[in-house]
Structure prediction request, 234 residues.
Amino acid sequence: MSQFVSKLEKRRQCAATATFFGARRGTCQTHEPNRAMRVAMVLLMTLRGTPTLYYGDELGLMNAPIPPERVRDPFGLNMPGTGQGRDAERTPMPWDSSSNAGFTIAEPWLPLGKDHIVMNVEAQKRDTGSMLSLTRALLEFRRREPSVSLGDWAPLAVEGGVLAYIRGRDRRRFAVLLNLGSVPRAVRFGEDLEGRIVLSTHPGRIGSAIHDRTDLGADEAVIIRLGHATGDWP
Prediction:
């Protein structure tokens, strides 16, 4: 992943930033897809370019199973049983926990996912720890900080086996650390850095002071506002 991001940045694809969620939802096929999608959202929102979300990504929705008799997509109809259909990521947007998820008063053209009773906009709006709340916090952070929306990008050398980079502009800098694995990591910076966590995928860490090192939980990402710079911005 580190090599991929570095190559992406070297090509300076500032016109658009590709989504990391695949065709849509549930394509984060990992040990803990919900936690991994939160880390992927931080990655997406802290790279250069324009973040692109497919509807449902902001909720962390999974692909919904489509019975053969409900298939609509021509690819799925023409190649049954091959998994080529796109209906699973085209199911109705779940707005609330009502019978048709607030999407329609009639029968929707594709079935809803079974988890729409809890995985819907109304429920996640009330949950400060939800994927929707995280996505909104990241969007607000990106709008507020030119260092992230318009600034430079540079890899950050760390010990601990995590993806790390710095976003900065006009000497205002942020370090982004992402643990893409299923085990906690102890991270030590390769340079003298300190700051405070301004955003984390795990609750309770915002405001924590960082001095030269930090610990990341499994599938955790943090954004650190750096308190000082060691030399000029690269």
In short: Residues 13-18, 229-234 have pLDDT under 50 and may be disordered. The two ends are 22 Å apart (CA to CA).
